[in-house]
Amino acid sequence: MSRRPTRTLTHTRTTEPRAHAAPASDVPQLLRLLHLASPALPIGAFHFSQGLEFAIDAGWIRHEADAQEWIGGIAGASLATLDLPVLLRLQAAWTAADEAAVRQWNSFLLASRETRELRAEDRHLGAALLRVLAELDLATEMFPARTQQQDGGVAHATAFAFACARWNIDALPALQAYAWAWVENQVLAAVKLVPLGQSAGQRMLHALNSRLGALTTRAADLMDSDIGVSSLGQGIASARHEVQYTRLFRS
Question: Which structural domain range is residue 138 located in?
Answer without folding.
Answer: 47-241
